[in-house]
Amino acid sequence: MAGRSKKKAETVFLVCEETGDYNYTLRRKPGGEKLKLKKYCPRVRKHTWHNEKKK
Q: Taking the chain, what is the end-to-end CA distance rounded to the nearest angstrom?
């Protein structure tokens, strides 16, 4: 049991490609590919691509 390290969830942000706004936050485990999702951006009032970014 001793010596095992658990990977804790970390907070990541989804940043709009068009405006650079931090619109969404997620808690996810480290590792894996970076997310790229089509989400709603309130500034331009349409769905745009959002990339994962750590702060």
A: 32
Token readout for 27 is 């808690």
Q: Report phi then psi at 21, rounded to 5.
A: -80, 145
| Span 3-30, pLDDT tens digits | 666 788 999 999 999 999 999 999 999 8
Amino acid at residue number 15: V
Tallying the residues shown for the chain, one arrives at: 55
Is 2's pLDDT higher than 80?
A: no
Cα–Cα distances (Å) from 10 to 13, 25, 29, 30, 54, in that order, read 10, 10, 6, 7, 9
